[in-house]
């Protein structure tokens, strides 16, 4: 336990600083090196990077940690991990939990934009698309507060069962959490904590629906790209390649939070129901979450050719001699699925 506390804080702080750099670099690439025909899709990509900077900032400012044991877990921070007033820390802690909802909804919007039948070229529609992840994250945070907020039973459980928090005063700690039982572990007859179980079930249903929606629009987007590549014989190979690059990078970006956040959190929840949760699970989850905003921008920078070329140019001596190419586009086509400019 003595090892984990400083290690987790070091990982969170280091990851946050690196995440600021990687996402800021990606934003610069999107703004300055994106093909012009991407139009509003650039704004969606920038929104995702700004969100990941915000996510990393929460890690840096309040140092949230997931603590797991037997049939319960808590997402916690306290006065030893942050210099901010605790009155504003709790909303940030809820935002940390609700950010997974923002990530899921954000990638759903990405896949929707890859489907030309669902994309409007009107600028006001951009605000509607961008509001979807914000509404989703707010909903997750509100549900977390309603069902998993602090209560006297959880206070007692923390003070008696979690050694690392035993001497932290209640007024210096903030958390939300889940417990399978509404009675302490040493009680012979255990009573199910139905409020927590129902809350987790409802949140889990929302997550499942989000995954189905994301999968549906991902398949639609893939079909749209395949149809575009097959039917547009006059389009250049560079144009078709860029469409595939955008889609492939998006798929990998989507897989990263699923692997780092969704899979571990699901396993922790299952173990909580089976009374097999170990403390190390929470430590691993905390590290994985802090790595998410660091790793997620990398697929776009590596896979999308204009961005990769711009990064290589920074390390190449002398001016670039690589030829530029511009593809003709159909001016009547309203979205990036059917018109692309490559440089």
From TrEMBL:
Keywords assigned by UniProt, alphabetized: Membrane, Transmembrane, Transmembrane helix
Gene Ontology cellular component annotations, sorted alphabetically: plasma membrane
Pfam families: 7TM_GPCR_Str (PF10326)
InterPro entries: 7TM_GPCR_serpentine_rcpt_Str
GO biological process, any: olfactory behavior
Annotated TM spans: 12-31, 43-62, 88-112, 124-148, 200-219, 250-275, 281-304
GO molecular function, a single term: G protein-coupled olfactory receptor activity
UniProt KW Membrane keyword: yes
Name of the protein this chain belongs to: Seven TM Receptor
């Amino acid at each position: 336990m003595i090892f984990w506390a400083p290690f987790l804080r070091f990982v969170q702080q280091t990851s946050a600083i690196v995440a600021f750099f990687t996402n800021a670099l990606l934003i610069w690439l999107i703004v300055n090196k994106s093909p012009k025909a991407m139009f509003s899709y650039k704004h969606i990509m920038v929104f995702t990077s700004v969100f990941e900077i915000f996510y990393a900032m929460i890690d840096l400012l309040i140092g949230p940690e997931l603590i797991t044991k037997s049939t319960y877990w808590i997402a916690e921070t306290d006065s030893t991990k942050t210099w901010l007033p605790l009155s504003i820390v709790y909303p940030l802690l809820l935002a940390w939990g609700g950010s997974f909802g923002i990530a899921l909804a954000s990638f759903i919007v990405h896949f929707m934009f890859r489907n030309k039948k669902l994309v409007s070229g009107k600028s006001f529609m951009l605000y509607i698309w961008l509001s979807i992840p914000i509404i989703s994250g707010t909903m997750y945070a509100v549900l977390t507060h309603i069902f998993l907020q602090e209560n006297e039973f959880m206070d007692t459980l923390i003070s008696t069962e979690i050694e690392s928090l035993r001497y932290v005063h209640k007024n210096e700690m903030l958390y939300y959490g889940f417990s399978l039982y509404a009675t302490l572990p040493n009680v012979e007859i255990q009573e199910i904590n139905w409020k927590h179980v129902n809350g987790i079930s409802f949140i889990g249903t929302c997550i499942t629906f989000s995954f189905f929606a994301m999968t549906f629009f991902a398949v639609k987007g893939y079909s749209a790209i395949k149809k575009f590549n097959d039917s547009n014989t006059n389009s250049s190979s560079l144009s078709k390649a860029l469409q595939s690059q955008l889609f492939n990078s998006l798929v990998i970006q989507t897989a990263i939070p699923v692997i780092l956040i969704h899979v571990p959190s699901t396993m922790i929840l299952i173990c909580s129901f089976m009374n097999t949760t170990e403390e190390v699970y929470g430590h691993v989850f905390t590290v994985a979450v802090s790595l998410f905003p660091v790793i997620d921008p990398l697929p776009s920078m590596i896979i999308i050719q204009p961005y990769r070329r711009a990064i290589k140019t920074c390390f190449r001596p002398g001016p670039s001699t690589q030829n530029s190419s511009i593809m003709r586009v159909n001016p009547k086509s309203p979205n990036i699925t059917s018109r692309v400019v490559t440089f």
